């Protein structure tokens, strides 16, 4: 009896659970069945059936009506969704979940003015609501009010530095929060074997937010191979939609070797759901012949961290195709401009301007590298620091080390 009794209780408890899950005679049971149908089975029609039946038993069950409104939203039936949310808010204007769901409805349907109105109405009753503040920031960013959106993101991150959605949004609008920006940076590269003299790179840039996105002009000066050179560059970040924006780059130098004569770049960036981000792009360098490099990136914000992976692919007709990889980890200790990062990778990246001339090498360089980056904002002033250790086989069976150190300053106004 002592052996069979526990088994009997387990079977009885399991049976009660099955009955509870199958209970569609009460509004609570119907609500549970509706959520199971929507989230587990992805059957919105069945979920709607259960939710409507639950409201027939309990018309004032606000949680069920909000859920039904969200079902209508997902099924692209905005008028039905609005009817649900208005029903609740007319009766309970301080119902936070309804305000959040209503804001989402209008935002996802590109009704930014209406979405902002709904967020503000909810914030009148819940001024500290992280859910409503985040949605207001997203709407303001969609309306290109980047400064206001950024201020809200700063507030959210001060209260909760682990808010991954706020962090992702802050990064996506980081360089558009101010109308203007100027920056200066310096990179120093020391070689223990490959070259007798270190390399120096100084960059001065000015950026301005325009109707299509931020445009940045840059002048680069370098001393490499005991020679001096100047390069002119333009970067642009046109926005296509809330989800997608572009990176467009073009550059020219008359000092071939120190810089490529021509450089160009094009990428499509995507701000994805669940705090993911991604990029697909191409870089073009022309020294005395053309080199095309294809790149892909995926990143995920989690708590106060960003984790990412990037690959560069260089097709070749005369030798083996080249692929390099980079892993990224960042810890954000404040806003989007406050982080410390670690990068581990292989190969030479065209986006690392202090090393990019090595892509013109006759011998395919086998490179392994690790770098640390630091960035911190003091109001409108941003300081950047970086250091890298690079081990490179620059000739067959001959390896050397490189040490890079960089410092930068950005002023927004």
From TrEMBL:
<feature type="signal peptide">
    <location>
        <begin position="1"/>
        <end position="22"/>
    </location>
</feature>
<keyword id="KW-0732">Signal</keyword>
<dbReference type="Pfam" id="PF14559">
    <property type="entry name" value="TPR_19"/>
</dbReference>
<dbReference type="Pfam" id="PF19413">
    <property type="entry name" value="YaiO"/>
</dbReference>
<dbReference type="InterPro" id="IPR030887">
    <property type="entry name" value="Beta-barrel_YaiO"/>
</dbReference>
<feature type="domain" description="YaiO beta-barrel">
    <location>
        <begin position="180"/>
        <end position="352"/>
    </location>
</feature>
<protein>
    <submittedName>
        <fullName>Outer membrane protein, YaiO family</fullName>
    </submittedName>
</protein>
<dbReference type="InterPro" id="IPR011990">
    <property type="entry name" value="TPR-like_helical_dom_sf"/>
</dbReference>
